[in-house]
Specification:
The protein is 11% helix and 39% strand. The chain is mostly beta strands. The longest helix is centred in the middle third of the chain and has 10 residues.
Length: 248
Amino acid sequence: MPSLIICKSKISNLFKKPNKNSELTSQLLFGEKFIVQKKIKDYYKGYCVYDNYSGYVRMNNFEKAKKKKLYRINKKNVFLYASPNNKKKTKKNLLFNSKILILSRERDFIKIGRYWIKKESISKLNNSSNNYLKNISFFLNTKYLWGGNSTEGIDCSGLVQELMKSINKKCPRDSKDQLIFFKKKILLSKIKKGDLIFWKGHVAIALDKKKLVHAYGPKKKVTIMSISQTINILQSKGLNIISIKRPT
């Protein structure tokens, strides 16, 4: 029978095959859920609860899901403290979009598991917004990582997904599926902030009529570029815009 587990590591890689040298296809953050279908050596085979994305995860990065997580890390990077004391900061940290359960509160700190974090670092999971780009600054200059889903490494479709996730919107993992999922088509002349520009195997986010942001492999990071420049660069590589979609 399938069972529900939860990520207990800062990041857990999702692999295409049950092998640490296999292709990285996605990642789960602390507190994210995974459905186990079967065990293979040191790996669980299954899928992520958020997007049904399937693959293999290392067993030692997960534990049995207990109480429901009700809060989300709302900062780029949050350090853990050994006690509710500013002088007790450890080298351990959690990343933006990680999910947590509050065990207790003391002064400006909340307890999660064995550690404490500052209360200002969290918000309720049910907080929603239409501005999915409000935290884009957390990802600027983040290194490009194929299959990455965090502020420590991310790819183009992972960037779109994590931003959508932060405002409680569903979003597929891969750009080819995002292209199908978002329905409203937009002409290039009508483009505005938040619109998604799709090429084969790539997606970028418009910041306005002239600029876009994307996790761009050739630059090895999340970067802001001119829309026209990006179109020209990709056209020179034989890639034309497939579609422009407006998330609604």
